[in-house]
Structures are given as C-alpha cells and as structure tokens.
UniProtKB/TrEMBL annotation:
GO terms for biological process: cellulose microfibril organization; plant-type cell wall cellulose biosynthetic process. It comes from Ananas comosus. Keywords: Glycoprotein, Membrane, Signal, Transmembrane, Transmembrane helix. Belongs to the COBRA family. This is COBRA-like protein 7 isoform X3. The keyword Membrane applies. Signal peptide: none annotated.
Length: 361
C-alpha cells in the first residue's frame, strides 16, 4: 500500500507467501499519511494528513489518493464504504467509465474497472444541536442584537456543552477526554445565553454615497478546539456587487444560473487561516466594501443584514427578523424601498465523491 496505511494488520497466519501482507483484515480501516511521509511510501496526490480543503480554498489539496495491491482478483464490487467523519453517509459503488492515465507523453493506459462512491453530508446526522449563531449591529443602532437564546442549547441542559464563566480558563481536569482516538473532544465553551462554540457578528459599519461597508467578525468560544482552514459562506442580495474584502480571501458562489448573492470567505494563509481557541486571539475579522444597487438598496426592514450564514458548512442560527436593528424614527436620510421578497437558496456541503480504480499489474 502507498499513500495510506491500515490501522490493523489483522491475522495473517494463514497466508503462504514470501512477503507478509500489509493487512489481512476483511474490512480494513485506511488512514491517510502525513505530508512528510517517506517518498517510497507516497503515491500521486496522496498524503494530506487526513485534511481536505474545499476546491475553492485550495485546488491542490481538495483531493487525496492512495494505492493498494489486492492479492485475489476482485470478483465483486467493494462495499460498506465509510469515511469515518460524523455527518457523512456513503452510498453503494456505481460503475463509471474506467479511468485513463497518460503514459510516456502521448499514450494512455486504462484501468480495468472504476467505481464511484458518493458520500453525502447532513448537519442533522452530525449533531442534534447547531454549532454557530449570528449576532447583528449597525452604526445607526445603539444596541447589539445578540444570538438567539439557547441557539446551541441552554445552560444546564443535558444537550448543552460544558461551559466556563467569562474571564476564567478551564483547567486540565475540566477538559473532557475523548472515548477513542478518532472521536473528537466535546466542546468546552464560554457560558453565554446562546452556548454556541462559534459566533459570527455582522456589523453594518458605514454608509457612503455609492458604497456601504460591513465588518464581519468570527469568534471562537470553544476552549478546546482550533479551526484550521475555516470557511464562511454568506448570502445577501448585494453580495453580487462586492467591491473589496480587506483581510479574507473570497470567491462568489453562483447558486442558480447568473444569480450571485452568495460569497465564500476564508483566511489568508499564515495570517488568519487558523481560528484559535477561545481567548484573546480567538477571533478573525475583516471588512467588506459593497457597491450600492440603486434599484434595491435600503437600510429599512433589515435589508442590510445577511439572509443566511454558514461556518464550515454548518448553518448558523440567525436572530428573528423582527429583532434586527431598526432605523431610528424620523430618520433624515431616505432610502429607496427594496423588493419585499428575496430568494433564499440552501447552502450546504457538496457531496464527497470517492473513486475506486482497479489497475492491471
């Protein structure tokens, strides 16, 4: 095997050969190798350390591959695929055209067989509770609209995470231990009225003649987890006219045809691509400059706030629309009215696709 390894060798006592197999398990668990794996253990496009980015964030690290030699010819399709990540469910292998490989510059070789396995993600399969929420504020409004109460559970309830009061730090004995090496550690969050590990804050900062400015802050309230290669997806009807993002990478996402009301944001490598655990450095922030569309721009009716927000593919709980920061009564500045209805498009994770390729050796 190259590019990966199995966690168990299994019982190979019945094997009669010169070389002991890498694994004799009928249902092996295969894990990725780290990026610094020995060269003779690597395969093409391998060794991501078990971490894949989205194709938008890094086209060089959105896939991983490994090779293995099977002693007995495969008489039937492989089955019972699982990627071992909470929330994902894998379907049965499907026959697809055999993969082709370029050989010697102008000749192509072809695999004997190729199967495709699609693994779909569901946030509800991963957890019964949401993991992030959204708070709002505006330059014309004195208060902050906090995340809705009990967005990710209520303090003291069985479903809520363990929490630490503001200003305190958890000691080692308070940190929960994982039951197994592959199981993530349960969150330990700051005690808040919403109890979410992640809070996204949208601040409507400034209003200019032809532009308006928004500040976005992501705060990690989880004391026991860093978020590497994080991503944030937001939906707003004016994001199609996004002029500049000052300290995040961004990419528009076209949901339906030419509709461009959704943008994906992520950190700049070695600057803010790591969202550290709760504390003084546990936040990242950026400002966005958006060009006004005279046909629909307004601050009335909560138009200046996002329709939907997701962090790392998880939908965040939004405040109730009637709680959005409202313009003060008798505001001297009149804004054109906006359309009453806005299209809301579901934002979720794309299916994860696996390919199984059989080569003739």
């Amino acid at each position: 095997m190259k590019g990966a390894e199995t966690t168990e060798q299994g019982n190979c006592s019945t094997y009669r050969g010169d070389t002991i197999p890498h694994s004799c398990e009928k249902n092996p668990v295969v894990v990725d190798l780290p990026a610094d794996a020995p060269y003779n253990a690597q395969a093409g496009n391998c060794c991501r350390g078990g971490v894949l980015t989205s194709i938008v964030q890094d086209p060089t690290r959105y896939m991983s591959a490994f090779e293995m030699i099977v002693r007995n010819p495969m008489r039937s399709k492989p089955s019972n695929f699982s990627i071992g990540v909470a929330g994902y469910t894998c379907g049965d292998p499907v026959d697809v055209p055999p993969s082709k490989y370029r050989f010697d510059g102008q000749r192509y070789t072809q695999a004997l067989k190729t199967w495709q396995v699609t693994c779909s993600y569901s946030q509800f399969r991963e957890s019964d509770m949401p993991s992030c929420c959204v708070s709002l504020s505006a330059f014309y409004y004195q208060s902050i609209v906090s995340c809705p109460d009990c967005s990710c559970g209520c303090q003291g309830s069985p479903a809520a995470s363990q929490c630490i009061s503001e200003g305190q730090q958890p000691n080692y004995l308070q940190i929960p231990k994982a039951k197994s090496q592959d199981e993530p550690i349960s969150p330990v969050v700051m005690c808040t009225q919403h109890m979410c590990p992640i809070r996204v804050h949208w601040h409507l900062k400034s209003n200019y003649k032809d532009y308006w400015r928004v500040k976005v802050t992501i705060t990690n309230l989880n004391f026991v987890k860093n978020y590497s290669d994080w991503s944030l997806v937001m939906q707003h009807p004016n994001l199609g006219s996004l002029a500049q993002v000052f300290s995040f990478n961004f990419q528009p996402l076209f949901q339906i045809g030419e509709t461009n009301d959704t943008v994906m944001l992520w950190g700049i490598e070695r600057y803010n691509d790591m969202l550290l655990q709760s504390g003084a450095s546990g936040n990242v922030q950026s400002e966005m400059l958006l060009k006004k569309d005279p046909r629909e721009f307004t601050f009335k009716g909560g138009w200046g706030f996002p329709r939907r927000v997701s962090f790392n593919g998880h939908d965040c709980i939004m405040p109730s629309p009637d709680a959005y920061p409202a313009l003060p009564n008798g505001s001297p500045r009149k804004f054109p009215t906006s359309a009453a209805v806005h299209q809301v498009v579901f934002m979720g994770l794309s299916p994860l696709v696996l390919y199984v390729v059989v080569l003739l050796l």
